[in-house]
Amino acid sequence: xxxxxxxxxxxxxxxxxxxxxxxxxxxxxxxxxxxxxxxxxxxxxxxxxxxxxxxxxxxxxxxxxxxxxxxxxxxxxxxxxxxxxxxxxxxxxxxxxxxxxxxxxxxxxxxxxxxxxxxxxxxxxxxxxxxxxxxxxxxxxxxxxxxxxxxxxxxxxxxxxxxxxxxxxxxxxxxxxxxxxxxxxxxxxxxxxxxxxxxxxxxxxxxxxxxxxxxxxxxxxxxxxxxxxxxxxxxxxxxxxxxxxxxxxxxxxxxxxxxxxxxxxxxxxxxxxxxxxxxxxxxxxxxxxxxxxxxxxxxxxxxxxxxxxxxxxxxxxxxxxxxxxxxxxxxxxxxxxxxxxxxxxxxxxxxxxxxxxxxxxxxxxxxxxxxxxxxxxxxxxxxxxxxxxxxxxxxxxxxxxxxxxxxxxxxxxxxxxxxxxxxxxxxxxxxxxxxxxxxxxxxxxxxxxxxxxxxxxxxxxxxxxxxxxxxxxxxxxxxxxxxxxxxxxxxxxxxxxxxxxxxxxxxxxxxxxxxxxxxxxxxx
Length: 524
What we know:
The protein has helices at 2-7, 9-22, 35-40, 65-78, 82-108, 111-123, 129-132, 138-159, 162-176, 185-196, 201-225, 229-238, 243-263, 280-302, 304-323, 340-358, 362-388, 391-401, 406-418, 422-434, 440-452, 456-469, 474-487, 490-503, 508-523, and strands at residues 271-272, 333-334. By secondary structure, the chain is mainly α.
């Protein structure tokens, strides 16, 4: 490996240079959306519950301890300095792109296509969340971990080595504990081995066995102990969607995503499928699937790298079929990051087809691609980086692209509260509630806005509604205590603060408020 790194130092430096240029205007971007509750405003960061050391902990919906560990490390190192988070994310993301370059170059001996696929994956704004989202350091790490897992799995396929098997399982386990999209790993590996043309069916099955066994064990664990059964499985099953409607929704999601890759326009963090979509979306999805399968079969011997790109594109779609139903109360949704391996597959297909057509004019096509990056992709990335720099502006932009979506409206209100624009925040939250989006987060933030507006009766009602959804929220009890204290209800305030102290002892200010109450009583 040391010799491989030395041989490809120039490639690594080029990828790092492209990444730095692409994200050069993002390092001073402020914290955005749930960067606050996950990082700078998280009173329980570092606690065992936050790190998900107890798989039955109720404070987190998803079991992603590596993600939380990265949040703890970056917060410990950088605190409220945003540039540090961006730099770590960028370095990990470039490392991921470089790892995939090494893998593709090793298997297919096409340095040109491998480099351009990795470069496009790093700089394309469809993946910009991997650098811009400060509490998502685990996303670029997952990209890196999947690349290393595939590298060691391919080594194992060639050598049948226990060391390589163990390293494959370890890196895959790290990726799984970042995000569930790693469940498609055996499909990525099987496609890589198949289109390399070096392995029999038996060899492919043998090589995929360790990762498949790990995934099976992990799936059972998640069903029984760590929220998977309560999120994707039960909630997705509860969603009433017909077979035709399902294909229509998936078709809309997929074509939305592909259009963002091609046109670089209207990319948002989360997009929800508009209601009342035409059944033609489902037909289009089936035609697209059949067409790409036929193309992969046709290209298998003519351009196996392009065929692999198509296979990885569809393998990356598989987890999304489940993930898009994970929060049915918000509708059918997609986060572009979920398809990061599909993006890489798309870029592999694009680069390998270009190379096949213009292999005798590599210098010219390289120059043309550099111009394309300089004129089209990098400026587009800068525009999205600018949007990420302001939570209010990003939320307002997001609302225009996905007007029915809960998230941009909620984060707009959250950001307005942070900026002390309480009247406008209240109006946004009331509109959400009147629209039927009655969740603990909505009521909790409405209570904060009403409290700062000194509407204590309304704030009390909002916090009690939030507690009806989740009575174990210590921060909600704390704010309810602040409302009672401001309204002069001392005994109620003391009870609320005691509840907050019992449920969330890490909220330091709770003890201070109880001391104030005791001092007042002693003074009387």
